[in-house]
Amino acid sequence: MTGSHAGPPHEPAAAARERLGPEHYDYFAGGAGEETALRENEEAFGRLALLPRVLRGGTVRDTRVSVLGRDWPAPLFVSPTAFHRLAHPDGERATARAAAATGIPLVTGVAATTAVADVAAAAREADPEAVVWFQLYPQPEHEVSAELVLRAERAGCSALVVTVDSPVFGTRTRDLRNGFHDLPPGLAAENMRDLPGAAPGATRDIAMCPAGWDDLARLRELTDLPLVLKGVLHPEDARIAVERGVDALIVSNHGGRQLDAAAASVEALPAVAEAVAGRVPVLMDGGVRRGGDIAVALALGARAVGVGRPVLWALATGGEDGVREALTALREDFDQVLALCGGHRPRDLTADQVTPRGLPYRPMRGERAW
Ligand SMILES: Cc1cc2nc3c(=O)[nH]c(=O)nc-3n(C[C@H](O)[C@H](O)[C@H](O)COP(=O)(O)O)c2cc1C
Ligand SMILES: O=C(O)C(=O)c1ccccc1
């Protein structure tokens, strides 16, 4: 490394910036409003430190975690992000093959530039057992949501992720400044093609619309897939969700792209984990950039963490190989952090091993969520 950077910086974003047109880079990188929530996701991790335990022996580690009946090789998944073909011509197929090759589950979304059937097929080329989940924004017409869920089921997705932090679009400051509001010709949200209410062959716009708990119940009736709620920050919502039979939660502020004043994901996590009290898996995303972040999130009650932008940067700079390398590096970094913390398994990380930086030891409280 050269220059004045202290320690490993987030080169991936800088490298991707060189590759992408400025308006596309800004679309991926940006957040809502003044980008407070965006910044806080990473900075909140920076305000937390780990206290390793020592002399715990053991040379063999097992980083697997169990989520909705499947063993994941590491407590890591790919969060749903829109428009991968803006990042790289191979788009979601490349991401899917890379995730599957590393055994890391992929959440593909309604806003993909590749249809869910093709994303899932690409994942299965790399690993027939690949875990692919589908993320949905509930659409204003129930039959549109129903058709999307059906397509996800047919594609072999094994969970339905419903994003609930987006009753309206966030204000994306950079996109407004750049005048970026449309995909370039040749790219489209392919899942939105040939849906009820649209001309044959045409795509519908993805709506973000306010939904209620009753809408969730309707989705629940549509499918036997496990239902995962994405975008929960308030512990009371977590409690209601569990009572209503949701199968897992993702604590998330949407990568700082919706409510600018939202809490950082990792700061909201402990109270959600406490409210859930182990009844369902609590996942989180937002600001996870290194193994230490994964360890902190696990210690505070997450069973696994998602990454959004790191995958986009890796895709933009290295395509499928880039994503595979980035996911592998993150996984290996976590394994090393686990070892350095005296842990053998993810569950060995506990909240008393996390303390605020710049203050005397003050163990975090944390009902273990798992
Ligand atoms: C460019 C971009 C597009 C996104 N699109 C979606 C989406 O379609 N659906 C969704 O639920 N979340 C979406 N997200 C949010 C991610 O799933 C995730 O919550 C967030 O990126 C995690 O933060 P990180 O980027 O700091 O890892 C998007 C995020 C980005 C950066
Ligand atoms: O940009 C986003 O964060 C996002 O979630 C989204 C939603 C709908 C269409 C495209 C992107």
UniProtKB/TrEMBL annotation:
Pfam families: FMN_dh (PF01070)
Name of this chain's protein: Alpha-hydroxy acid oxidase
Single GO molecular function: oxidoreductase activity
Keywords linked to the UniProt accession: Oxidoreductase
Matching InterPro entries: Aldolase_TIM, Alpha-hydoxy_acid_DH_FMN, FMN-dep_DH, FMN_HAD, FMN_hydac_DH_AS
Family recorded in the similarity comment: Belongs to the FMN-dependent alpha-hydroxy acid dehydrogenase family.
Coiled-coil ranges from the UniProt annotation: none
Species, as recorded: Streptomyces nogalater
